[in-house]
Specification:
Blueprint: E1 9-13, E2 19-23, H1 28-37, E3 45-48, H2 54-66, E4 69-72, E5 78-81, H3 92-95, H4 105-112, E6 114-117, H5 131-139, E7 143-147, E8 150-154, E9 163-165, H6 171-181, E10 187-191, H7 197-208, E11 212-214, E12 220-224, E13 232-235, H8 240-253, E14 256-260, H9 268-276, E15 280-284, E16 287-291, E17 301-303, H10 314-321, E18 326-332, H11 340-347, E19 351-355, E20 358-363, E21 371-373, H12 377-389, E22 393-397, H13 400-405, H14 409-415, E23 420-422
Parallel strand pairs: 2-14, 3-13, 9-10, 17-18, 21-22
Antiparallel strand pairs: 1-22, 1-23, 3-5, 4-5, 6-8, 7-8, 10-12, 11-12, 14-16, 15-16, 18-20, 19-20
């Protein structure tokens, strides 16, 4: 298991040029949702390719607190069994560690007719409104109340399928409502559903467990409820955000990487922008090859729901643009506080002006090593990328945020030629 001690730091030597091969780990956002889905059955759910990251560990602790069995098998896969769930209330101290923790609400409510949880934790990158979750539960017949710090959902007679409109195509909201609906009576239609690959993969997992979901990959999911789901063995998809981070790193450092198992089929928006910036990218069934070009060209982008450029790659791409020749404009259309990374990059010499959900980046600028913080998982990735090209040594504090989303990050960096020390 990974460490979840807050704090920690990386000491990074700059002016690196990345070379080599790196294997892309399992997708965090797919793995966390799949773990929650295990609450829907009393049979074993075995998940392969689950990354060794602290968000997985904290969710595993939460599921154990509910009464589920969660353990790593000798082959590295994760076994979950929720046959003996003893409580339907997620412990507040565990909910606060992980934004995906609120996704236990849908499975618990659907299977048992009761669920209680504090609001989700995780990165402080916006309000993360949970109204779309709760209104979906209410539409299916649940009574939802706020009791102190907890949201409590009750449906003692079970949930009833209906038409649920999502005010916003929230990934976690779609997943949560979907997991409640698969065991509701009758048919549920989710309108304006999120279409992200991780949502699609959760649909496939639930269908493999006996659910009846159609419209996968569209903004209208139709779910015919079933009485019970069964166990399954499934594989977590490779992480498109990790693959994107390494692709950006190769371009930013003028390096050359082969990304084993990179899911390039679902990365079109990023690859389009990287090619526009001058990168050479070739894809093949086993992954993709990325070579940085010089000079890096300025490009503008919007962070959008899928199939747009993922908001989780906004900050790393923003770091790249500090090395681009010209002025780039960034618009964030998903979260309302994604600009945390800007202040840290400016400490290193970046010329970035941010206003609300937009930023203007002027480059190229020579970055300089200094002491910065990883303010969230993706802002941490941005300052790490900046450290790779900076002159001198950069100390990055609070790297526990990076441990939440990137598996064995420092080990992978060293295989690519980076001098990095965890302290």
């Amino acid at each position: 298991m990974t460490t979840r001690v807050r704090g920690g730091r990386y000491i990074v030597q700059g002016e690196a040029v990345l070379h080599g091969r790196v294997r892309i780990s399992g997708a965090k956002n797919h793995a966390l949702a799949a773990m929650c889905a295990a609450l829907l059955t009393d049979e074993d759910v075995i998940l392969e390719n689950v990354p060794y990251i602290s968000d997985v560990d904290s969710l595993a602790d939460l599921l154990r607190a509910l009464g589920a069995v969660v353990k790593r098998l000798p082959d590295g896969s994760l076994l979950l069994n929720a046959a003996r769930v003893a409580t339907f209330e997620a412990p507040t101290e565990l909910i606060s560690e992980n934004r995906a923790s609120f996704q236990v609400m849908g499975p618990l409510l659907g299977r048992y007719g009761f669920a209680a949880s504090a609001p989700p934790g995780g990165d402080v990158i916006g309000q993360r409104p949970i109204d779309v979750h709760l209104s979906g539960f209410e539409a299916m017949g649940a009574a939802v109340t706020r009791e102190g710090e907890r949201f409590v959902a009750r449906a003692p007679a079970g949930l009833t399928g209906t038409r649920v409109f999502m005010d916003y195509p929230s990934v976690s909201g779609t997943q949560n409502v979907m997991m409640a609906a698969v065991v509701a009576r009758g048919k549920t239609t989710i309108v304006n559903a999120a279409t992200e690959p991780e949502v699609q993969e959760l649909c496939h997992l639930l269908n493999a467990m006996g659910a009846r979901i159609t419209g996968v990959g569209t903004q209208m999911l139709e779910i015919d409820g079933v009485e019970r789901l069964h166990g399954v063995r499934a594989r977590i998809m490779p992480d498109r955000i990790e693959a994107g981070t390494w692709a950006i790193a190769a371009v930013m450092t003028g390096g050359e990487l082969f990304l084993d198992e990179a899911p390039w089929e679902v990365m079109d928006a990023l690859l389009h922008k990287l090619r526009a910036a001058g990168a050479e990218i070739t894809t093949e069934p086993g992954g993709m090859h990325v070579r940085g070009g010089r000079p890096i060209r300025a490009v503008s982008f919007q962070a959008l729901p899928y199939p747009g450029l993922a908001t989780d790659l906004h900050a790393p791409f923003g770091a790249l643009l500090t090395q681009a020749n010209g002025v780039s404009i960034i618009h964030e259309r998903v979260f309302d506080n994604r600009m945390l990374y800007v202040s840290e990059l400016r400490k290193m010499g970046a010329e970035i002006v941010s206003t609300g959900s937009s930023a203007i980046v002027s480059g190229p600028t020579q970055l300089h090593g200094t002491r910065v913080r990883a303010l969230d998982v993706r802002a941490g990735a941005a300052v790490l990328l900046a450290a790779l090209v900076a002159q001198g040594t950069t100390i990055i504090d609070d790297i526990y945020h990076l441990d939440r989303g990137y598996e064995r990050l420092d080990e992978k960096l060293r295989t690519m030629g980076v001098e990095v020390e965890r302290a």
